[in-house]
Design a protein that fits this description.
About 35% of the residues lie in helices and about 25% in strands. It has about 375 residues and is α/β, with parallel strands linked by helices. It is globular, with a radius of gyration of 21 Å. The structure holds nicotinamide-adenine-dinucleotide.
Length: about 375
């Protein structure tokens, strides 16, 4: 049965936005629902429905969250509820199909990271967005939205701290054998990628958000501990268009777990150390020795503490919807870290330098992050060597 034509929901809007949550698992319960409830209390949104293939799970989710309409079928929910915004909280292999379905129904989308398992799938989402005024699909990259990141971006934009020169981007986490004994983990088809994709993408995305476009990457990947198809560690060297150079480490083999970004500029080092989220106090700005004390002191004022969180990003997304403008972390802006991850894998698996923009249609890394590389791709998909 064909669904009814999507209503025109582009342009400015005033009343409460009708929101539906797709996927009633861990991140929906732990982060989306609390953020939505906060905005519901402020009169911004109302959560009208949730969807999950697990009927019990979605009924429980709706009962606990005071959500009136549980569904097990996404298209049926879209047809009956006509939400303004759909938040996609399912595993990454479902993101393209569900996001495109919601966009076609006229809803804006807030889709969990990692965006999609390939650039080809991401581009299919972009192609389904509205032309002017939406609907648009934004990716959940909540670490861009804390006040610490905003302050650091402002210091760079003002030029006070000088040019960024050297950066470190570290996601050194620890995942044990029990974690990887769950069948869908560690496999390209179900998890989408290893720690570069699933764990490190947050830190890499934040680094790109602060430092701007990258130009080339050289990388290595290893499978040192776990019985997985994907890597369990990767390292990479990245050059930015600005000339800045970065090292990246994405690991699930590191007992002392930390997420860190350090940016050495001409006149200051700016460093963030946290694990899964940060506040202002997790940032340290260290001035160069010759910086006047008064100027250095002004750099320490991060303003009101807005921790990195789903709430911070959702608040901005809702404001973009009301204004009818493309939200941050959508379109080309939401694609940057997936392109870097794709290039990281291509470089690691083919032993070449990969330049920004080169992975497009016809490149095996455009359609699959493993690129068909022997020794990395599932045996039936290995295509060369
Ligand atoms: N932003 C973050 O910091 C963060 C943190 C954790 C997870 N995530 C991301 O959130 C997404 C979901 O992760 P999770 O940990 O909540 O997983 P989960 O397994 O806890 O939940 C996924 C839910 O999706 C449901 N589902 C499966 N197929 C479906 C379908 N076809 N239609 C509707 N529902 C379906 C499952 O039944 C399950 O309830 C992943 O992309 C993950 O990477 C993001």
């Amino acid at each position: 049965m064909r669904s009814a034509p999507a209503p025109d929901r582009s342009g400015p809007r005033a009343s409460r936005l009708k929101v539906a949550v797709v996927g009633a698992g861990g991140i929906a319960r732990g982060s989306h629902l609390p953020a939505l409830q906060e905005l519901a209390e402020e009169g911004e949104v109302e959560v009208v429905a949730a969807v999950d293939v697990d009927d019990d799970a979605v009924r429980r989710f709706c009962a606990d969250g005071g959500i009136p309409h549980p569904y097990t079928d996404l298209q049926r929910m879209l047809d009956e509820q006509r939400p303004d915004l759909v938040t996609v909280c399912t595993p990454p292999t479902l993101h393209r199909e569900q996001t495109v379905a919601a966009l076609r129904a006229g809803a804006w989308v807030w889709c969990e990271k990692p965006p999609t398992p390939s650039l080809e799938e991401f581009d299919a989402i972009e192609a389904a967005e509205g032309a002017e005024g939406g609907p648009y699909a934004a990716i959940v990259f909540q670490h861009r939205f804390g006040s610490g990141a905003r302050h650091v971006r402002e210091l760079l934009a003002k030029g006070d701290v000088g040019r960024p020169l050297v950066a470190h981007c570290q996601t050194t986490w620890y995942r044990d054998t029990a974690y990887y004994s769950v069948p869908w983990r560690g496999r390209w088809a179900t998890e989408g990628g290893g720690p570069a994709m699933g764990h490190g993408i947050h830190q890499m995305d934040l680094m790109l958000d602060i430092l701007g476009p990258w130009s080339e990457v050289r990388a290595m990947a290893g499978r040192l501990v776990h019985d997985v198809e994907t890597e369990d560690v990767s390292t990479a060297l990245v050059r930015f268009e600005s000339g800045a150079m970065a090292t990246i480490v994405n690991s699930v083999l590191s007992p002392d777990e930390v997420s860190r970004i350090r940016i050495d500029c001409e006149r200051a080092t700016m460093e963030l150390t946290h694990l899964y989220g940060y506040g202002n106090a997790d940032w340290v700005v260290t001035p160069a020795r010759d910086v006047p004390a008064e100027l250095a002191a002004s750099w320490q004022d991060f303003g009101t503490d807005v921790p990195s969180s789903h709430l911070a990003q959702l608040r901005e997304l809702v404001a973009s919807m009301r204004a009818g403008v493309r939200p941050r972390s959508s379109g080309a802006d939401g694609r940057t870290s997936l392109e870097l991850v794709s290039a990281l894998y291509k470089s690691a698996f083919t032993d070449v330098t990969v330049r920004a923009g080169e992975i497009g249609p016809g490149d095996p890394y455009y359609t699959a992050l493993h690129g068909g590389a022997p020794g990395w791709a599932p045996a039936e998909e290995a295509s060369h060597g």
